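Let's do one together. I've listed all components of the complex below, 158 residues spread over three lines.
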Amino acid sequence: MASRNKAARKTASRKASNKRSNKASGKTSNKTSKKTRSGVATVAPQSDAARIIAAIKKIPRGKVCTYGNVADVAGLPRRARLVGTVLRQTPASRGLPWFRVINASGRISFPLGSDAYARQRKHLEAEGIDFVGGRVDLDRYGWPPRAKLLDELLWGPV
DNA sequence: GATTTGGCCGGGC
DNA sequence: AGCCCGGCCAAAT
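Okay, and this is what the predicted structure of the assembly comes out as:
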């Protein structure tokens, strides 16, 4: 069964992001920067949640972004699930365009038929996003645009 | 498309 | 610590 490249998959395919960079050591809990040892105040690293929120805010009207891409934009590759978790526990009161986040299949992640599903879909359609067979065409509405993703991966942020 | 399989990570117990 | 479960992902069947 050719079960060879398993570990290779993520690493190689999903963005040659070798940028697992910093953290990587499991927990990151960057709470508010504390280590102000003697004065050298390290610039408070934003919490992962804050970065995710910020990334979501960038999604333009009429566009959608997958959990994975939100994570990438937030500088947290491979933390798609965290995006879901953060979203789940973030009060919509924040004026956050949470509804622009959908899964990599171009579908709304809530169970079809649920209120949540209907709510999200309504928001998206209100922005002109069109659903075909319950799916959003990511080539058309996805953000950031694929080309851009690729470029940044290969060339780095301009 | 649908499923399976393996991987990733954070949170809760 | 260990185990299990997520608004996940992607390659392979």
